[in-house]
Amino acid sequence: MLALKELIVDHGKLRALWDISLHVNKGERVGLLGANGAGKSTTMGAIVGLYPVAGGEISYQGRSISGSPYESVRSGIALVPEGRRLFPGMSVQENLKMGAFAAASRNNLDALYEQVFSLFPILKEKRNQRAGELSGGQQQMVAIARALMSRPQLLLLDEPFIGVAPLLVEEIMSVLSQISRDGVTMLLVEQNIHRALDFVSRAYVIENGRCVLEGEREALLSDKSFAAKFLGLD
Ligand SMILES: Nc1ncnc2c1ncn2[C@@H]1O[C@H](COP(=O)(O)OP(=O)(O)OP(=O)(O)O)[C@@H](O)[C@H]1O
Ligand SMILES: [Mg+2]
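A: This is the predicted complex of the input protein with magnesium ion.
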């Protein structure tokens, strides 16, 4: 469904991604792991057209995309960005509406609201409150719900559990599982390796802008270099 081939991305003069190749099949849940500054968010941003590609290729459903954020949303990809990026002074519902800006189903807003409210009932209660007044976990729900407003086929999640209380982590994880069972493909960036590997079936490890390891969950868990680097750290 999604394939990155030898992707290179620069931030100004700094090369952030040197060689990223990965793929995500339809219906899969895949993890993208790595230390701070490894290039995880840059990879996610490049997929949705936030950063220009300096080399290599991104293809989605068999087509090369070089895209703008608008086009990537239109083609069925949605990003839940690192740090949520809500508009704190706007209401929950106004934030959700932003997610539907490019959606084909835009004229069906009420149905879209109902769909995300059924996944996150608390957001219905708080729909007229300012997003900035919600707890960290509830704000993360808004960020995920906003992404779902475009009815994506591929959902990119960049550290969705930062600043979220443990109880809400559980709740959000179970909603994400449900969305996944409904057929939405997912690529997840997560710092907590155990949590990530609970959720995904396969993962890539990136280091300094390069993929250094890839494998099924079980293979990673029993890989000595992976275990030495990551397990027991969180
Ligand atoms: N907008 C930017 N301008 C300049 N440099 C950037 C920008 N965004 C990221 N970088 C640099 O690119 C590299 C990769 O950063 P990136 O944010 O992709 O890493 P990350 O794996 O998401 O890290 P973290 O776990 O801290 O979120 C880092 O060296 C970072 O300092
Ligand atoms: Mg990041």
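Residues 2-230 form a domain with the Rossmann fold fold (CATH 3.40.50.300). The first strand starts at residue 2 and ends at 11.
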